[in-house]
Amino acid sequence: MAELFIKSEIIDRSMEEDIFSEVEPFRIKMVEPIRMPSREEREKCLDEAGLNVFLIKGKNIFIDLLTDSGTGAMSDRQWAGLMMGDETYAGSRNFYNLEEAVQDILGFKYVLPCHQGRGAENVLHTSLIKDGDVIPGNTHFDTTKAHIEHKKGRAIDCTIDEAADPYIDLPFKGNLDLKKLEEVYKEYGKEHIPFTVVTATCNSGGGQPVSLQNMRAVKELSDRYGIPVCLDGARYAENCHFIKVRETGMEKHSMKEISRMQAECFDIMTMSAKKDAIVNIGGFIATRHEEIYDSVKNLGILFEGFVTYGGLAGRDLEAMAIGLYEGLDEDYLKYRIGHVRYLGERLKERGMPVLWPPGGHAIYLDMKEFLPHISPDQFPGMAFCAHLYLESAVRGVEIGTLLNGRDPDTGKNRPAKLELVRLTIPRRVYTFKHLDYVVKAVLKVWEKREQIKGFDLTDEPPVLRHFTAKFKWAE
Ligand SMILES: Cc1ncc(COP(=O)(O)O)c(C=O)c1O
After folding, report:
1. Residue 203: CB within 6 Å of ligand 1?
2. Is 89 a catalytic residue?
3. Rounded Cα–Cα distance for residues 198 and 207 (Å)
4. Is 294 domain-assigned?
5. Across 288-393, where does the E strand assignment appear?
6. What string of DSSP letters covers 419-448?
7. pLDDT tens, residue by residue, 350-400
8. Tens of pLDDT along 321-363?
């Protein structure tokens, strides 16, 4: 498998020999027992879930790498913050703490809390997208794409071509291709492009970062065409870390300085705070433009709640304000990125086809190499996840053709450029030893890979089908 990997390995400056890329920078004060279900139980659970690991109860999972969203462990300070919740309907002090944190870390003046990332997308997209509009971006996340299509718009992927090669070792595989972007701008013009979206790091593209240089170029180009740029910033802090350690001249800046420089490239930000603000629920829209804030705030009230709570309790706003700082802490980020990289390196050493370099929040396995005998229409990533669960009670998630959905015009499956399984690492939850167990689990599936069959759909919901679809083993 080694020949798959192209170019020398990226060495992140300042990560080498840094203690926090090998050791947790926290102590454990409270534990949650986890249980290993027996093989018979696992078989029954999978069967009852229609072979879709999304539908397995959490209590039957040993190590849950389904998502890093809302699954992080809050700190003692965040838990203390919960006790300081001001549950005033309008004007809760926790809202002002959040607003101040966003202004301080990101520099956006206006902040509209929302219950989570897709709540923010719903409000923003309903306000800005009209029938026939296009939204260019770098491999839009599934909820982003689904919301765009729900508003009768279309997402156009302008990611650099190299991102489609899982083994090219490049520092910023989340970057947008400016030529592709400009072609879209020329073809549709600002009348049909309400905004461009940059997802950093890029979840559906392997958790790969976007460089500051690229963001600046996107902003400059978009300004020339009069098109606002929106940061899908769920993992904005992890992206800042990559900028610091990989981009020339950036190592001397603090994380907050980098975050401010990054945010300056954007007019709007949608945030799922369940990732880099390390809360179990929360999100927001932020912008520097009063007119954009005015256009979203009424829909915010309609869909989410009054402008100072947005579907959240005061205590959630407080935890989010504190978490924004913790998620941007330099030592925490060294640990976080080092922890994810540890899993990637252990798998790669054992010859596993791992998307390279490792992403910020997850390790992605290339199913085209792992299960080449299963066609995209039979969802190799789903078959892998089923076997990983059967072998080890570890839960991963398909990021491939099932997630990609069907083409709204032809009704056919949209085969994914990259057919992946994501092993997503929750923040501050699992130890390095847990990751060693995951490596063993993947190797067990690898040994059996030739006998693994694909899936046939038996039940397919019309939108976001991957969450609740059911399957049978293909003949
Ligand atoms: C890049 C990105 N954007 C938006 C979202 C949606 O956020 P939420 O799950 O909070 O609705 C996610 C969730 O995983 C994401 O990864």
Report:
1. yes
2. yes
3. 13
4. yes
5. 362-366
6. -EEEEE--TT-S-HHHHHHHHHHHHHHHHT
7. 999 999 999 999 999 999 999 999 999 999 999 999 999 999 999 999 999
8. 999 999 999 999 999 999 999 999 999 999 999 999 999 999 9
CATH code for the domain of 271? 3.40.640.10
End-of-domain residue from the set 310, 327, 344: 327
Strand order across the beta sheet in which 110-114 lies: 110-114, 283-287, 268-272, 229-232, 196-199, 134-137, 154-157
**Residue 15 domain boundaries:** 2-64+332-473
Please, what's the b/e burial string for 6-16 (b: 16 or more CB within 10 A of its CB; e: otherwise)? Answer: eeeebebeebe
Same domain, 96 and 55: no
> What is the residue with the minimal CA distance to atom 5 of ligand 1?
117
* Nearest CA among 224, 259, 222, 214 for reference residue 240: 259
CATH for 383: 3.90.1150.10
C-alpha 121 to ligand 1 mean position (Å): 9
Q: Of the candidates 280, 370, 241, 229, which has an alpha carbon nearest to the alpha carbon of residue 70?
A: 280
Q: Which residue matches tokens 């003949």?
A: 475
Active-site annotation holder among 95, 141, 266, 370: 141
Please indicate, yes or no, whether residues 97 and 23 belong to a single structural domain of this protein. Answer: no
Q: Are residues 214 and 117 in the same domain?
A: yes
